[in-house]
Amino acid sequence: MKKIFLNLMAIVVTIFAIASTSCKKDNSKSASAKIVGKWLVKSVISHQTYQGVTRHDTTFNSYDSYQFNANGTALIKLSDTEENTVWKVSNNKLVLGVTTANGVAQILDINILTDNTLELHHLETSPDLTVDLTITLNKEDS
Fold first, then answer.
1. Model's pTM, two decimal places?
2. How many domains in the chain?
């Protein structure tokens, strides 16, 4: 009787283990899938140093936004300007704009990407100018 009970318990445990692992959802989305949607600018921190003089700026408008579409197009609204562009995610970087020899793409590091928060960083240096920019965005509720 004890042997039958142990065998039954082993079968129940095995069935439970198989059922619990095979029914798990894969909640992990790719970075490209997470980024699709409308993102509202929450904060901008810019440090620009030109010929040794540093300027700090945190100015943005509450209606500034980035709309990333699943087809790789984007609409960026900053201040009073709107720009239609293309986008892609590659190696934890957001590439905005044309990537041909005739165009210039803006490449931003993705520091944080969750379902609700996107933090982008851009550092550009030249002999006379350094620009260090961090943009934090929150996904608009759908």
1. 0.75
2. 1
User: What is the chain's mean pLDDT, rounded?
Assistant: 83
Of the ranges 14-18, 44-48, 65-69, 117-121, which one carries the lowest mean pLDDT score? 14-18
Is residue 40, in this structure, part of any structural domain at all?
yes
List the CATH number of the domain containing 68.
2.40.160.90
Residue 1 domain flag? no
Containing structural domain, residue 95: 31-139
The tokens describing 90, both together, are: 């590659």
pLDDT at 62: 87
Q: Which residues contact 136 (CB under 8 A, 6 or more apart)?
A: 41, 42, 43, 44, 112, 117, 118, 119, 120
